């Protein structure tokens, strides 16, 4: 049976082998990671050890050279076990893309080799306090400082904030006429002027090490630029956005699959002493499970089609990418909601892993581009309006 | 850009050529067909003339030898123009399948050649008054009459009732222990004892020539049997059901696409004299259109995946088939509902073709297996229960 | 059991007596009115004969002196039998309100006595082609002509267009600075320059005699003004809007009640020959019916509370009015949709009256203020924004 | 402005006075109660001190003699501040009802006086492991022991398990022919054989002190019976169920109101640095808030009508009670879901109190009668089927 995301033989082998090993570890610690709101160090360590941090790094840099299909498949599998691990991983692989295609970053090859070797974990730092979820519109600015730059920024949410070795960050270019005239640059761990500026406690994905980060008088060397000045928006929208969308959609599907599996098991096993029946004997519960599965497979099918389209880009590819993320975010929220309703008290009282999945699923809804943004982008595209008007 | 249903070059050429010609004819007459509740004879005539009645008849019988992908693509295209034409066509191609694989029908090759030549239009006659939408459970019975049979039946809904040259019908086999021990047989136009037993007027698909049909003392020759005695259920569930599901899902998608296109056009063009704005300037209307498109493409993606799976059958293929039909029926109802809400008075008052599409879309919901059946089947499959328990 | 709309003993007597007689007549002709798209003259004649056209006309003018509660109760009852009759009636009673409170109309008492006597049927003519559903913003203008006025207008939808004896119409006052500086005036049947300017065919409410009306060089005498110049907007928003909202909400509830009753009857009666069971034995169908009833009673309860609030106005009364209409429009669409899904083929094929109710229910959605307007108004009120900003 | 639950002047005074004081205390500790999963002792202590534990105890026993309207109003107010406090309170007032009407309980007056004095906190212990959410069908049994009884039971969820002074419990009567032939009896704190049999950790209502309770060889004196043998079901369904339904519905409304208020405030205050706009400027967010408010007020209106109907019982009163609970549970889940979607990251990351309310709101869904039960009961009532068939 062909994999819905169209992965090749090497990708298939990864799933049944390296990924399966990481997943077992992630699963073992997921409840503890959630309860304590701690970083999933065991699973992230295993990802590094298994070479999976370099999944989409070119082979010539020591990576596995896989594309979006394998990225989606791995992200989805991880999310069936531990949402926080999947989130950290999706952010890392996504942030590695603008690095991989950068024409301006000094020491790019060494960095990619470190990523492939599992010794460098990266992430994105886009959203800012001033522009909220409009990640494409930084309010922070690079100020010229000789051949280099300095910047101040209040980054509102950075995943893996304390554990990443670098952040892929954004700011307006010097003398930008609008927030869209921006640049991406790399912030290295331990650089002077980088400070985790507050605590963070979320409803879900409690182990993803999110935090607000303050950049204060940060020195940005010319060689730290990931894009040319003024070319940040295309990199954000044409490189980061597709990979982020694919990865987060797949992660959402992993949560859906976890919910479907736990619900199917509960309905098949739990029953009534006074009648001898099982929960699956109630047609309404069966219908709810069916709806969960259909929603999941619909969204996975669209993602599979989107990934295929990225491999042979056509006019509708960008619209497919937006729609794939949109559908997956809605599916995750709806499918886990239905799981809570299907499993009732057993889900609510944590006898099943469902309530964690239910909470984790809400996280996708709040990261930009949000469902509201995506509806708006798609609606504009369909009626001939500019996307950022 | 690859077609979502995975059709080959010959299929692609058909779409841009023969199908496009039929579609133009169907479009021209669709409003009249709906208003008068009359058979779409122009479009069905064109289908015959263009060789499309033989789309899935083997090449050696003079047909085009196409598979489910082309069937879906053609059914969808027709439905964007005229739902009634698409319905008649889907029933014809579906009913031709048990004929094509029959090992018992006398004169099978001649019949297939007639279908390919466009001189024979066929359809299904499964549902009965006594078993309502449980099409897999006929209450009518074949009674032994020497080497042959007679039967009486109250078939509740037969599409193309007055215009078909044959019906593929169902009955319990003689001495059946349950309604599932059935057989399929062919009823030919003009046979003694076949009577259209009542009028029919529906909310939508008003030109699909549906009617209740009474079979009264009908002679069924041994050579009219399409299956062996007792083998009706497998033929219904393994041959007819997949093709019917694919075809009706695709037809639902055609209605969705018509709704998306008409809505996008209306929002882009209609506006306000007192402000100069267009409807597309309202974010709520754009979001509604986006939701319509996402729902449509989700369901098309699942159907594409299902069709691919039918080409390389795996364990989950039957479940994909059921889910593809389920998703498409729900999409058609929801997408056309959103279109009515997005376009308001212009849709309600028939200035746009939307209200016909809205009515046509409800038809899928009432044909078995209905959305309720499908939820139940999928839920049973996922919890390890027998489908007909 | 107290009536949910809080009517008094006289109102209760009306329901069981005069209204019941009219309802029986309306019911008898409803299918024909719908099929032919013709005016429900029998039922409207009966309303006149029974004195119900004067339901809310003051007793001193010969009316029944009832308030919003009785209006809602009668409108709802009529809608259970014939949506078109209810629509004509709701428009009449609503349009009679600005007449009853006018301080400028010449011959007001005689007009009210005619209404009470059942010899004068009135209606609203607000919406215009240029401002679409923004009924509060006429683009037409009154031009000064000595002490009087002339006007030209393209009224887009006028209910009872051919059968009303007068229209309550709107236009901008001479030299208005914005469309909100308007006036209401009375257009009498047969006045020179009044022309039904086009046909109308809708999905539902097919007997409500809606049509676009052109006013061309219409003479408007000073004594035809229903408000002072510039005072149209308050009359529209504070007099017409509450009565229109109450009446159309109640009408929506009548359609809901008809759907609930027909569905309960069908599920209780229809069954399966091969198993002996009834449709009500399916938990999913019962749940759907339950949801229909709950939605109906929720919306009726809010309307009852709103009517009580209108009798002792408080700060939140206007917000209740908007929410009551909003909830009722959504209930009507959702409840009739569920009825179609619960009753399947029997509903779709017109064996039950449900598909007419389903179509009628969509009409509320397209009359301004629409559901979209109402969401926006309520949202603005709750966040401290001006309603027309 | 009349209160939607129809409370009298004494009730109104309570709200602005005693209840307001308790609410302030509950609000202060709500986040801590939730974070630690601890009993809301401060607020429950204040309820006792303010005399509110005796709200619905007859005045002749020292209570406040209020009815269901005041119960609903107080429960709703408490829930706007702290869901766990409201839950404990609703269970207490509900459990006091079968005590108040008991004809068999020894020492009833003293017990009621203690409740009124705030020195006795009671609760329900109905659900059992063996019959899951079918609370009306205990599998535990009273065994005759001379004039008295003994019993064993695995009560699956008891609110206030560790802090209540008594449980109102259920069991099958000796020699019962079905689980419906039951009796209610009182379990006193510290009785031998009562054991909290496990921990409990829920998604929401984390301070409500729920736990499974084992009754092992518990002695039940004849005078501990709250009903005659075999009369448990009528007491559960006609006394407990209405009060429980009213109280939990009102509690759900309190959560809704908290969500509406927090969302309105956030949309009005939060904005964008780079544009100067506020969140309320987005029509989609306003519409979401509007929908939240409409859903809340619809459900409150139905509860108000239900309470009025309980004061003058009619044939439809029991159906109203079931529908009021059903609507409120669905409203709480939907309204808090919309709040999370409207407020995005601010809600998810606990900057607003919304995520606690969101989690608390799911609790109603899992307590019997659940939404699924209620749909089934209402559907059966509407189609003429027995409720427990």
Question: Topology, please?
Answer:
4 copies of one chain form a homotetramer.
Chain A lengths: L8 H28 L4 H9 L18 H14 L1 H18 L7 H10 L4 E4 L15 E5 L2 E11 L7 E7 L9 E7 L5 E3 L14 E10 L11 H38 L13 H29 L5 H32 L5 H13 L4 H12 L7
Parallel strand pairs in A: 1-4
Antiparallel strand pairs in A: 2-3, 3-7, 4-5, 6-7
**Helical region count of chain A?**
10
Low-pLDDT stretches of chain A are none
Strand sequence of the main sheet of chain A, in spatial order?
2-3-7-6
Of all chain pairs, the largest interface belongs to:
A-B, 47 and 47 residues
Secondary structural class of chain A: alpha+beta
Oligomer: homotetramer
Topology of chain A as a string of helices (H) and strands (E)? HHHHHEEEEEEEHHHHH
Overall description:
By secondary structure, chain A is an alpha+beta fold. Helices cover 52% and strands 12% of the residues of chain A. Chain A contains ten helices and seven strands. Chain A has helices at 9-36, 41-49, 68-81, 83-100, 108-117, 232-269, 283-311, 317-348, 354-366, 371-382, and strands at 122-125, 141-145, 148-158, 166-172, 182-188, 194-196, 211-220. In chain A, the strands form two sheets. A four-stranded antiparallel sheet of chain A has the order 2-3-7-6, with no helix packed on it. In chain A, strands 1-4-5 form a three-stranded mixed sheet. The longest helix of chain A has 38 residues, at 232-269. Chain A is globular. Chains in contact: A-B, A-C, A-D, B-C, B-D, C-D. The interface between A and B is large, with 47 and 47 residues.
């Amino acid at each position: 049976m062909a994999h819905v995301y169209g992965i090749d033989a090497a990708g298939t082998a990864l799933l049944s082998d390296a990924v399966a090993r990481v997943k077992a570890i992630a699963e073992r610690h997921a409840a503890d990671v959630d309860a304590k709101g701690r970083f999933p160090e065991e699973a992230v360590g295993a990802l590094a050890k298994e070479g999976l941090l370099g999944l989409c790094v070119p082979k010539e840099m020591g990576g596995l050279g896989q594309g979006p299909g394998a990225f989606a498949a791995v992200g989805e599998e991880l999310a069936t076990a531990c949402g926080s691990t999947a989130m950290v991983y999706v952010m890392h692989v996504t942030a590695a893309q603008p690095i991989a295609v950068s024409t301006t970053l000094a020491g790019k090859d060494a960095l990619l080799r470190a990523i492939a070797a599992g010794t460098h974990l990266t992430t994105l730092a886009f959203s800012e306090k001033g522009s909220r979820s409009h990640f494409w519109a930084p309010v922070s600015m690079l100020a010229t400082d000789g051949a280099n730059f300095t910047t101040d920024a209040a980054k509102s949410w950075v995943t893996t904030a304390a554990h990443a070795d670098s952040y892929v960050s954004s700011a307006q270019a010097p003398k930008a006429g609008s927030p869209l005239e921006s640049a991406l640059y790399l912030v290295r761990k331990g650089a002077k002027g980088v400070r985790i500026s507050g605590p963070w406690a979320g409803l879900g994905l409690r182990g993803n090490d999110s935090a607000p980060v303050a950049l204060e008088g940060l020195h940005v060397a010319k060689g730290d630029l990931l894009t040319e000045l003024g070319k940040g928006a295309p990199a954000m929208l044409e490189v980061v956005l597709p990979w982020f969308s694919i990865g987060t959609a797949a992660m959402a599907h992993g949560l859906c699959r976890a919910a479907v599996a736990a619900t199917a098991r509960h309905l098949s096993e739990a029953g009534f002493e006074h009648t001898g029946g099982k929960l699956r004997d109630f047609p309404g519960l069966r219908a709810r499970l069916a709806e969960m599965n259909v929603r999941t497979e619909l969204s996975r099918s669209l993602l599979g089609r989107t990934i295929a389209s990225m491999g042979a880009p056509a006019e509708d590819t960008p619209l497919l990418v937006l729609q794939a993320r949109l559908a997956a975010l809605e599916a995750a929220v709806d499918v886990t909601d239905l799981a809570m309703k299907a499993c009732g008290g057993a889900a609510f009282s944590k006898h099943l892993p469902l309530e964690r999945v239910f909470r984790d699923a809400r996280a996708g809804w709040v990261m930009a581009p949000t469902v509201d943004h995506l509806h708006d982008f798609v609606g504009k595209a369909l009626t001939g309006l500019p996307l950022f008007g």
